[in-house]
Write a structure and sequence with these properties.
Helix content is 64%, strand content 0%. It is an all-alpha fold. It has one domain.
Length: 69
């Protein structure tokens, strides 16, 4: 299990996503089950902390983005 997968599974995780590292972005999109575009939009809206990204995604913030993908 990767650090990203563990953090993605922990709703309290305060780990940050490094959007400047393409390999990290790929690992995070896999761990969260989202597209690159959805991850970038979430980071723009709520910042790079995983707990905030997950809250945003869970609140429907990315529902439209994923449906269009």
């Amino acid at each position: 299990m990767t650090t990203e997968t563990r953090a993605a599974d922990d709703p309290r995780s305060e780990v940050h996503v490094d959007i400047d590292d393409p390999a990290a972005v790929r690992r995070w999109t896999d761990a969260l089950g989202i597209t690159d575009e959805a991850l970038m939009k979430a980071v723009q809206v709520v910042g790079a902390r995983v707990d905030r990204i997950k809250d945003y995604l869970g609140a429907g913030g990315m529902a439209g983005d994923q449906a269009d993908a």
